[in-house]
C-alpha cells in the first residue's frame, strides 16, 4: 500500500506562541510532499522534522491571511539556494500576486527554478491536480476572506493478483499488468478466465480533507463525506462560541459535529487560538461529540 | 547606569539549520528595543526570549538579503494585531519598498499603526536617530549588495553629584539637575563653588557596533574604533578563506583582526555558515588573535 500520511508542521493561529507554529502541513503520498499553507517558519519546521525539501511537489494555500503565507518567501528562496530546477506550482487565490510578484521581481534573476501560480476558485469545487495515484481538488469554506479547503483523493489502486492463480494458469509475466487493471486471461487453448477469479479488489482509495480556516459550515459536508481523515480547525472551546462566530472560526464541538455529519473515519483538530495553554478542554469537547478525534501537534504524523 | 545590552535572536546565515535562526538581534537600551535585522521567525524568537513587543522602538536592516528581512511581514502584522499605535520607523536601503509596499497595499487598511521608511546611505556614515541617551548611525560595509553596519553610541551621561557636598553646602533640590549637567553652585552669600568640587564624571559613554554581512574590510575601522562591544560576522573558519572572499563574508580570524585593529573591548562573532555543526574551530581561530571573543548564540545577552 502506498504511503499516505499528513505531517503537521504548525497548528497554531494568527498570534505566534512558544507552543505552536503558524499553520502548515505536508501531505506525504509516495514520497511526494504536497504542502498545505505556509506560515512563518515553515522551512525551519521542515528541517526540524526532517522533511526533505527536494521532495516538495507543490503548495496549496487555503487563504491569504498572513499566518498562512508568511513562510513562503523564505521557503521559495531556500529552494533556489538548494538548486531546485523543476517548476514549483502554487495553488492560491489570485491576490497572492501581491506577495509573489514583488518577490520574483526582486529575486527573479537569481532563482534556480520557475514558480507557476494557479488561481483557486472560491465559489465551487475544482480539480487542481491529478496524476496516476492522486486527485487534488479545492472547495469553498466560510471565512472572512475567500478561503478554500482541499481534498486529497487516492485513485483506485490496481487489483491484487492471486499468486496461486498465476501458477495454476501459468500466466506469463507480460500479462500481469493488464490483469491487475481488470483484464481477463485467455489460455493458449482459448479458454477465457474471468478477472474476478484471478484477482482480489485493490485497496480502497483513501481520502483526506483539510478545512481551515472556517466558520461552522454544514454546506461543506458534501465535499468531505466519508473521508478517512478530516483536519478541521477548532480555534476555540465552546465558551468562546460567540467569538468563533464573529471571527468566522469554529469551536471544537462544531468541528466534531461536521466530522460526524460527514461520516469521517477520524478527525484531527488544530488552529488553536493563542489563548489556550492547555488543549484538554478543546479535545474533551470534540471527543464528546466525535470520539475518534486527535489533537494536531507540531511533528505529529497521521497515517491514512 | 542605564541598561545597555544586546540580545541575540538569531545568528545563523542564509541556509536555515536546526541550530541557528537567521539574523536578528535587539539592542536594549533603557527598556527601549532597537531591532537589527529581522530574519524569518524573529517574532517567534522574541516570544521565546520574552522580549516585549510593545518595547520595540525601531528596526534597522543591514541589507536586503532574504535571511535578514523575511521576518518583517510576520512581525509587522503581529504588532498590528497587538494594537500598536505609535509609528514604526524602519531604516533600510530604499529597495525595501519591494517588500513593504505590497505588504502595506494588502494589509494597509487593517494596520493599527503607520510604518515610516528611512533610506540608508550605502556610501558614507550617517546619523539615523538620536534622543537624550543614544545616537545611532550607519556606515558602509563591504558585501555583494549595498550593506551597512550600525553604531549605537550612548551619549555622555550626567555627572554624579557627591552626596556629602549637597549636605555640606546645603544645596537645594531645585539646583541638583543643573549641577549634574555641569553648573557651578552659588551659595546664598555669593561664593561660587566650582562644579568639579561638587561632582564626579558620569559613566563613560558606551558604544556598540554591528558589522554583518561583510567581507574583511579594514576601511570600517575608523567607524568602530574603541567600541565596547563589536558584533562582527564570522561566517567561515580559515579553511574556507577563499570561499569567504568570493561570497564577501569573513573568517573568524579576520573578524578578530578587525576587533584588534579597532581596539574593541569585546568581540562577539556570529552569522555562522550552515556547514558548521560545531563552532569550536571558529571560536578558537578568533581567540588566537583576539582573546576577548565570544560566540553569539540564540538567547545570549551581552551587556555593555
Give the structure's gist in a few sentences.
The structure is a homodimer of 304-residue chains. Chain A has 304 residues and is an alpha/beta fold.
Structural commentary:
Two copies of one chain form a homodimer. Chain A is α/β, with parallel strands linked by helices and 304 residues long. Chain A has two domains: 4-157 and 203-303, Ribonuclease Z/Hydroxyacylglutathione hydrolase-like (Metallo-beta-lactamase, Chain A, 4-Layer Sandwich), CATH 3.60.15.10; 160-200, no CATH class. Chain A is built from ten helices and 18 strands. In chain A, strands 6-5-4-3-2-1-18 form a seven-stranded mixed sheet. The longest helix of chain A is centred in the middle third of the chain and has 11 residues, at 97-107. Chain A is globular, with a radius of gyration of 22 Å. The mean pLDDT of chain A is 95.
CATH architecture of the largest domain in chain A: 4-Layer Sandwich
Principal-axis shape of chain A: globular
Strand count of chain A: 18
Rg on CA atoms of chain A, Å: 22 Å
CATH class of the largest domain in chain A: Alpha Beta
Classified in CATH, the superfamily of the largest domain in chain A is: Ribonuclease Z/Hydroxyacylglutathione hydrolase-like
Main sheet: strand order of chain A = 6-5-4-3-2-1-18
Average pLDDT confidence of chain A is 95
Sheet of most strands of chain A: 7 strands, mixed
**Spans where pLDDT lies below 50 across 5 or more residues of chain A:** none
Please give a handful of descriptors for the protein shown.
7-stranded mixed β-sheet; homodimer; alpha/beta; Metallo-beta-lactamase, Chain A; 2 domains; 304 residues
Amino acid at each position: 500500500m502506498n504511503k499516505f500520511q499528513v505531517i503537521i508542521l504548525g497548528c497554531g493561529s494568527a498570534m505566534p506562541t512558544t507552543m505552536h507554529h503558524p499553520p502548515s502541513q505536508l501531505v506525504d503520498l509516495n514520497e511526494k510532499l504536497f504542502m498545505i499553507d505556509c506560515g512563518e517558519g515553515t522551512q525551519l519546521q521542515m528541517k526540524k522534522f526532517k522533511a526533505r525539501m527536494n521532495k516538495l511537489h507543490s503548495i496549496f494555500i487555503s487563504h491569504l491571511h498572513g499566518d498562512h503565507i508568511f513562510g513562503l518567501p523564505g521557503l521559495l528562496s531556500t529552494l533556489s539556494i538548494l538548486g531546485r530546477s523543476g517548476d514549483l506550482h502554487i495553488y492560491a487565490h489570485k491576490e497572492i500576486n501581491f506577495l509573489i510578484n514583488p518577490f520574483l521581481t526582486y529575486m527573479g534573476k537569481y532563482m534556480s527554478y520557475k514558480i507557476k501560480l494557479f488561481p483557486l476558485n472560491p465559489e465551487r469545487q475544482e480539480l487542481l491536480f491529478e496524476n496516476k495515484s492522486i486527485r487534488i481538488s479545492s472547495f469553498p469554506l466560510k471565512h472572512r476572506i475567500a478561503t478554500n479547503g482541499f481534498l486529497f483523493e487516492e485513485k483506485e489502486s490496481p487489483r491484487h493478483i492471486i499468486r496461486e492463480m498465476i501458477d495454476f494458469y501459468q500466466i506469463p509475466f507480460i500479462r500481469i499488468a493488464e490483469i491487475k487493471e481488470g483484464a481477463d486471461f485467455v489460455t493458449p487453448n482459448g479458454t477465457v478466465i474471468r478477472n474476478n477469479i484471478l484477482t482480489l479488489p485493490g485497496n480502497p482509495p483513501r481520502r483526506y480533507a483539510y478545512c481551515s480556516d472556517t466558520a461552522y459550515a454544514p454546506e461543506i459536508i458534501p465535499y468531505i463525506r466519508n473521508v478517512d481523515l478530516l483536519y478541521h480547525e477548532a480555534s476555540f472551546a465552546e465558551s468562546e462560541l460567540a467569538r468563533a462566530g464573529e471571527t468566522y472560526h469554529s469551536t471544537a464541538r462544531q468541528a466534531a459535529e461536521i466530522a460526524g455529519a460527514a461520516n469521517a473515519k477520524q478527525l484531527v483538530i488544530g488552529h488553536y487560538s493563542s489563548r489556550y495553554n492547555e488543549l484538554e478542554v478543546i479535545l474533551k469537547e470534540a471527543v464528546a461529540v466525535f470520539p475518534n478525534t486527535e489533537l494536531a501537534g507540531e511533528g505529529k504524523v497521521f497515517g491514512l
